[in-house]
Specification:
This protein is of the alpha/beta class. The chain contains 12 helices and 12 strands. The radius of gyration is 21 Å and the shape is globular.
Length: about 325
């Protein structure tokens, strides 16, 4: 085993290559690159590496067992979220998992953009403009300062969203298990039910856990305002897709703008324009005129890509040198 060898999966040459090349030049490491996912025959490329570096691809128990058998001791995911990794299996096989928390500004900016697009019917405006249909009927928008915005999750991204919103003059409600003094300057903390009942627009900024899986479902939707607007740049399974579809069809949900969706693994970041989608709910959601769907793009800025690559690799280097790193996920 080469203690300084790192295998990088789902390697993207067009935006990540410059940073991986820079890291390899600046440090005493050998990088093995693979454009594919860590699965099947590709797993053999991890042999000889103490660390592997992945992105949002599923790491199952079987894959974890195979990696452990080849001597892998550390998995760095160049993402904030790590719900694509079987953490119980990682603990069972003694493999350390680390993430790469990039700055919150990019996702926060994107979130506010989606809010404004939903409020101003931007999807329909752009569709009509493409067809040279310059009519106004059905495009009447709403103004953010008139609304009560509910922010679920006040971590780094949720807090930045609240700061961004403070300049629009809207009332801001916040919900989180852990309150932050920084948030109180701009928003009022409340309980979950109160936020759901009174917010005109709700945005999600919380990691996916067993307790908040399908946080939005038929029951929680039933207590929300009619015409509520939902924004999700966090994790797809926070919102049950069937309930989202039913809520839109019934008019309970006035609009939605989602950057993430349930069962997106294997879809996003691939060119599938000539393929029948194997996610029926996504296909249905894309067809609604009041639903804006983007493909897990909120994070995608120059700053974020640089941080994701460099910090994930720095974590690998720290682990190889000391047996630990500052980015290890604490479960």
């Amino acid at each position: 085993m080469n203690k300084n060898q790192i295998t990088v999966y789902t390697y993207r040459k067009f935006d990540e290559d410059r940073y991986f090349s820079q890291f390899e030049k600046e440090h005493d490491v050998k990088i093995i690159t693979c454009y594919g996912n860590p699965e099947g025959d590709n797993l053999a490329l991890a042999r000889g590496s103490t660390c592997i570096n992945i992105i949002t691809t599923k790491i199952t128990k079987d894959i974890m067992q195979t990696l452990s058998g080849m001597g892998v001791k550390y998995i760095a995911t160049r993402t904030i979220g790590y719900d694509h990794i079987d953490m119980k299996a990682a603990a069972e096989y003694g493999i350390v998992v680390a993430n790469a928390p990039y700055g919150p500004e990019g996702v926060a900016d994107y979130t506010v953009m989606l809010m404004l697009m939903a409020l101003r019917n931007m999807k329909r405006i752009m569709q009509r403009t493409e067809l040279q249909d310059y009519s106004l009927n059905g495009l009447l928008g709403r103004e953010l300062h008139d609304l009560t915005v509910g922010v679920i999750g006040t971590g780094r991204i949720g807090t930045q969203v609240i700061k961004n919103l403070s300049g629009f003059g809207c009332k801001i409600m916040a919900y989180d298990l852990h309150r932050k003094d920084e948030v109180v300057k701009y928003a009022g903390y409340t309980d979950q039910e109160t936020l759901l009942r009174h917010a005109d627009l709700i945005t999600f900024h919380t990691p996916l856990t067993e307790t908040n899986f399908h946080f939005i479902n038929k029951e929680t939707l039933s207590i929300m305002k009619d015409g509520v607007i939902l924004i999700n740049t966090a994790r797809g399974p926070l919102i049950e897709s069937e309930s989202l579809i039913s809520g839109i069809e019934a008019g309970k949900i006035g609009a939605a703008a989602i950057d993430v969706v349930e069962n997106e693994f294997g879809l996003y970041y691939n060119d599938l324009k000539s393929v029948v989608l194997n996610n029926r709910e996504l296909a249905v959601l894309r067809g609604f005129p009041n639903v804006t769907v983007s493909h897990h793009m909120a994070f995608y800025t120059q700053n974020a890509i640089r941080t994701m690559v460099m910090d994930s690799m720095e974590g690998c280097l720290q682990f190889m040198q000391t047996g630990n790193s500052r980015w290890v996920v604490k479960n």
